[in-house]
Specification:
single chain; 2 strands; 2 domains; DNA polymerase, domain 1; two-stranded antiparallel ribbon
Length: 281
């Protein structure tokens, strides 16, 4: 695949993304998408809009969802920006806003507690604390590194992500549990959750730790991933507070429209509400 990419194009794009302070995960995702574009199209270093649009349409014809197509297209359009070729950008697919969340992917509160119990039964205190930390704060998995021993003592963490900084409060009980963990692990400074070699847990390791609980907890594999804990935090907070602007700030969202996705209810919940309205004779 890589042989079809114009010389140095991928490296230059990586540098551009890095200078714009994209996260490592996003850089990996975008460079992979760009590599696919060049492999699929055989385009030159400066693709024209027609080539990009045709590639977008070919992905749709292959059955990719609009969100996946637009995600791949965003990488190519960003590449066009990086080489000062905005005329080569193609328009994303228009999507109607989703009304309901997919119940097959929505992690419920009961399932979350089953995961906690499974971690406890397996004797994996670190995994239990990992689940509780992400779900009770709403942080991204990439922000886990900012949950430090110092932050636990202050009961407040300073998060830096996507070129933005925000401070989040840590629940008192969570701090007590993390302090005990730090004492047992002799962690006096730096990130609380460490992997081999004393480095912060990487995204892949966190995924594996959570997925390992699925069978024991009897929770569908496709529901168990770090970002779903963030969604559960958002729904729980909104059900109590009903303040979407404050929730957006807590989650670090620039747009409330993004936050709306996090609090989207399932079709089953909406049906329950309709039945409670009693508007039929």
């Amino acid at each position: 695949m890589l042989q079809t990419i114009p010389q140095t194009a991928l490296q230059d794009y990586c540098v551009w993304l890095t200078h714009r302070e994209y996260s490592p995960a996003t850089i990996q995702k975008y460079t992979k998408a760009l590599a696919r574009f060049f492999a699929d199209t055989g385009a030159g270093k400066k693709p024209d809009r027609e080539t990009v649009a045709a590639w977008r349409d070919s992905l749709t014809a292959k059955g990719y969802t609009p969100s996946t197509v637009n995600s791949l297209l965003a990488a190519v359009n960003d590449y066009q920006e990086s080489i000062d070729n905005p005329a080569g950008k193609a328009k994303p697919l228009k999507r109607q806003r989703r009304i309901f969340a997919d119940p097959g992917r929505e992690l419920t509160r009961a399932e979350y507690f089953r995961l906690l119990n499974a971690a406890r039964a397996a004797g994996s205190k670190r995994t239990q604390l990992l689940l509780e930390t992400i779900c009770s704060t709403g942080i991204r998995v990439s922000e886990l590194q900012f949950i430090t021993a110092e932050a636990v003592r202050r009961r407040k963490a300073s998060i830096r992500c996507k070129g933005k900084c925000r401070e989040i409060l840590l629940p008192a009980e969570l701090c007590h549990r993390l302090q005990r963990w730090c004492q047992r692990q002799r962690i006096h400074a730096g990130p609380v959750f460490l992997g081999r070699g004393g480095k912060p847990l990487c995204r892949g390791t966190v995924w594996k730790l959570l997925k390992s609980l699925c069978g024991r907890a009897n929770v569908a594999w496709r529901k168990v991933f770090p970002h779903n804990l963030r969604h559960l935090f958002a729904r729980t907070f909104y059900n109590i507070e009903k303040n979407i602007s404050k929730l957006a700030d807590l989650l670090g969202h620039s747009s409330i429209e993004t936050t709306r996705i996090y609090i989207m209810e399932s079709g089953a919940e909406h049906e329950r509400m309709l039945n409670q309205m009693h508007l039929l004779l």
